[in-house]
Amino acid sequence: MTDYGTLATDPIFGLPLQELWFGLVFFILAMFLFLDGFDFGVGALFATRDDEAERETLLAAIGPFWDGNEVWLVVFGGALFAAFPAVYANLFSRHYLLMFAILGALILRGLAPEMYEQRHDEAWQTWWGRSFVVGSVTTPFLLGVFAAHWLLGVETLVSLPGVVVGLAVVALTVVAGVGFLGLKTRGALRDDIVGYGPKALAAYLALVVVTVGYLVVMRPDLGVLAPIPLALVALSLVAAAGYVVALRESRFTLAFATVPVLVFAFVALVAVLMFPMADPAAGLTVSDAIISILPLNIMSIASALLLPLVFAYFGILYSSFSGPVEAGESYS
Questions:
Q1: Is the pLDDT at 206 greater than 80, yes or no?
Q2: Where exactly are the transmembrane stretches of this chain (predicted)?
Q3: Which of 133, 141, 213, 237 is the most buried (most CB within 10 A)?
Q4: Long-range contacts made by residues 69-76, C-beta under 8 angstroms, separation at least 24?
């Protein structure tokens, strides 16, 4: 048993808390990209719909979920600040404009469907429908730029690898959106939406190949060809094949189940390539940036108690609103 009098000097239960918290930060980021990712994907697919009833169906599909899903981004920022305050400070000061752009895109994405439902004249709904699409596409793009710049230590606002990774994340969210709508829609709408899945997946895989090729040539120090990164790429290819086969066979639950595999493999690849650095641009390793042992132990205990409650909440939420959207249901 652990002597709790040593909380100020030793990791609780002898656990490698530095590495665990580094992994937890990226796990939370992956949860956001998975859960809010299909919301973004639905927002992008909203641009393909002209029929008002179909648009209402898409909005109704994400209505109960998107604001809860967005909380994971707040938790990501909170966990990063709590465990690695120096990294948080460096990233948010170095990418100040990018952070505000992400915030603005999130606000637009959240505000647009609310405003869309307030009036039903054509000009109003056209404006706010387009705003919904812009917010839904811009947010994952900018998050991809942020992830690439964090990994590569880029300090500029825009870079070529940032743009490529940003586009890859947008394509991944469309893949997720199609998988989600396979479960939430029916009939001709679902048949048409499903057709976008393989196209978005092909775009995602192509952009990942470009990114990996760039890293192999320009950043061999990251070890992209090491066993774990290659295994994550292989896992993504297997999940991608399963996604396409499941869509073709109308096994939509299986198709959606492959989405978290793709998302977590992507985020894990970023984390693995970065480790043991926590902030490559500043030269901070995980051990350099982590907080002292006492608050780290306390946070670890609190997280072990709170995370099961969070997962229980989301389990209840998703089970309560499971099944396809019924005729007549709307966002509001």
A1: yes
A2: 20-48, 69-89, 132-152, 158-181, 201-218, 224-247, 254-277, 289-314
A3: 141
A4: 69/32, 69/35, 69/36, 69/39, 70/32, 70/36, 70/106, 70/110, 72/28, 72/29, 72/31, 72/32, 72/35, 72/36, 73/32, 73/36, 73/106, 75/28, 75/32, 76/25, 76/28, 76/29, 76/32
As given in the structure block, the two tokens for residue 35 are 């859960």
Give the residue carrying structure tokens 């990114």: 211
> Distance (Å, rounded) from C-alpha 230 to C-alpha 233?
5
Task: Provide the whole-model pTM.
Answer: 0.94
- Residue 1 pLDDT > 50: no
Structure tokens at 255: 């198709």
**Residue 327: CB atoms within 10 Å:** 8
What's the mean per-residue pLDDT of the chain? Answer: 92
**E-only strand ranges, the chain:** 277-279, 284-285
Name the strand (E) or helix (H) holding 205: helix 196-218
pLDDT digits (tens, 9 = 90+) for 161-173: 999 999 999 999 9
Instruction: List domains and CATH numbers for the chain.
Output: 16-298 (1.20.1630)
The model's pLDDT over 51-87, given as tens digits with 9 standing for 90+, comes to 888 999 999 999 888 888 889 999 999 999 999 999 9
Write the CB contacts of 177 (distance below 8 Å, at least 6 apart in sequence): 37, 38, 39, 40, 41, 42, 43, 44, 45
- 12-25 mean pLDDT: 92
